[in-house]
Amino acid sequence: MTDNPVNVAADSEAALQVRQAVRAVLADRPGRVLVACSGGADSLALAAALALEARTAGVVAGAVIVDHQLFATSGEVAERAAQQCRALGLDPVEVTQVDVVASTDGLEAAARMARHRAYDDVAERLGAVAVLLAHTREDQAETVLLRLARGSGARSLAGMPAVRGRIVRPLLDLDRAVVRAACFDFGLTPWEDPANSDPRFARSRVRHELMPMLVDVLGAGAVAGLARSANMLRVDADALDALAVRVHTSMPTLTDLDAIVLATHPEAIRSRVLRAAAIAAGSPAGSLTRDHVRTLDRFVTDWHGQGAVALPGGVTGTRIRGRIELRPSS
Q: Whole-model pTM?
C-alpha cells in the first residue's frame, strides 16, 4: 500500500464510477457517515470513495469494522482494515467484536444479524446518519437466487434495498469487477476473505459455481436481469405493503381483526395483515412461516368452526363472532 493510497489513480474510470455512486447518496445526508469495512476489495473501494467525497459533501466520514471472531487471525484482519481506513483519513474508525452463535438459519445468517446489530449500536453511539455497505450488483443477484430457492415471497425476492433506515448501499448498480478495479486504482491492497470461496457456505457456491453457469447459459445480462427483477419486485411489494397497512390500521385493534372485512381483500393483502397482526401479538417475525399465515387465513376463507391456531412465540389465533383475535397464550 502506498503512503497516500487515496490519490493513486483516483480519477480512473472505475474509481469515478464508485465515487459518483457515493456522491449521490451523500448529497442529502449531512452529518456523520460511516462505512462498514471488512478490508475486502469492495468495502475498501467504498471507504476510499467516501474519504474523497466527504469533504465536498459536508460530511464527517468514519468507519466501523466488525470482528466476527470466527477464525484465529480475525482480530489482525480487523486491525489491518482499521489501519487502512485511518490512512484514508477516516475518523473515527471503530473496531467492534461480536459473538456469532449459529442458529437454525446457519452461520452466515447469524453473522449477518450480529454484524447489523453492531452497525446500529456504533451508529447510535456516534450519532451517524448513515452506514454505507459495499454490496454490488452481483451480491444482489446472488441474494435473489438464494431466496428464490427457499420459496420466498415478493418482499424477500426484492433483494437488498438501497436504503433501509441508516443502512445505505451505494454500489448496488455497479458490477463487482468495476468496484474491485477501483480498489486497486485507489492503491489499496484488499484482504481476501476465505469464506467467500469456502464451498461449505451456500453463497460461496452460488458465487463460484451457479452464477458462472447462469451467465454461460443465459448470457452476461443474467446478473443485471436478476438485479432488475429485484428492483421491480420491490416496487410491487412496497405498494402491497402500503395497502396492507391501510387495511390493518382500519381494524378494531392491531391484534383484533374483522374477518368479514378481510374477506373482501385479495390474499396478497390478507396475508400481510395477518402476519403483521401475529407479530404485533408477540410472534417473532423470523419464526413466522408462510404455513402459519395460511392457517390463519383459513379463518377467513374456510371458516367451519375450527379451533385455535398455535403460533411461534406462544401466540394463539382464534376466530370468535366474526373476529380473528391474536393473543399471547398466557
A: 0.83
